[in-house]
Amino acid sequence: MLDHFVSWLADTRASDVIRNVTWIIPAVQTVHILAISAVVSAVMLIHLRSLRLALRGEPRADLARRFAPIIWYGTLVLLVTGVVLIVGEPHRELVNPVFQIKMVLLVVALALTAVFQRFMQADPLYWDHTHARRAAAATLSVISLAVWIGIVFAGRWIAYADVT
User: Which of 143, 126, 117 is nearest to 63 (CA)?
Assistant: First the structure.
C-alpha cells in the first residue's frame, strides 16, 4: 500500500518539479534546518530552565509564553517544508525506517510540549506548586530534550539510511 502511494507521489508533476528544479530542495532544506534550529533552541531554553541549568531568574511560565510561538509556528514551517521534501523525494523519505522513527518521535515531542504548556496555561505556576510537580517538570524536560535530540539525529540520519 505504501509502495503504491510512494510510486504515485513520485510520478506527480509536483514531485517532478521539486526534484528537477535544482534550487528547490536545497532552499527548502535550508529553511527546514533553520526552523528545526529555532524550535529545538526554544525547547531547550524552556527545559533547561525547568532543570535549573539556565535562566534561573526567569519565571518558567514567562519563558514558556515567550517561546511557545517559536515552537508552534516553527513546527508549522517544519510541516510545510517537510511536505515539500517528501513530495520531492518520496522514496527517500516515506519508506525509510529512520524517517518513520523521526515522525514517531515528533508526535511524542509535540505531545510532551502540549502537556507541559497546557498545565501552565491553566495555572502559570502549576509546575512550581509542589516538590512532586517540580520533579515531574524536570522528568518531562529530560524526556522531551532526549526526544528532540533524537529527532535531530534521525533527521540527519535519513540521508544515510539505505532504503533500496
Answer: 117
Report yes or no: 137 and 61 within 8 Å, Cβ to Cβ. Answer: no
Reference 18, options 71, 85, 65, 66; nearest CA is: 85
Contacts with 129 (C-beta within 8 Å, 6 or more apart), sequence order: 123
| pTM, entire model | 0.84
Taking residue 50's Cβ as centre, other Cβ atoms within 10 Å add up to 26
**pLDDT by residue, tens only, the chain of 164 residues:** 888 999 999 999 999 999 999 999 999 999 999 999 999 999 999 888 888 887 777 877 788 888 989 999 999 999 999 999 999 999 888 989 999 999 999 999 999 998 888 888 778 877 788 889 888 888 999 999 999 999 999 999 988 887 66
Q: How far apart are CA 86 and CA 14, in angstroms?
A: 11
C-beta atoms surrounding 111 within 10 Å: 12
**Do residues 134 and 26 lie in contact, with contact meaning Cβ atoms separated by under 8 Å?**
no
Retrieve residue 78's grid coordinates. Answer: 517544519
Measured between alpha carbons, how far is 80 from 78 in angstroms, rounded to an integer? 6
The answer to whether 88 and 19 have CB atoms below 8 angstroms apart is yes
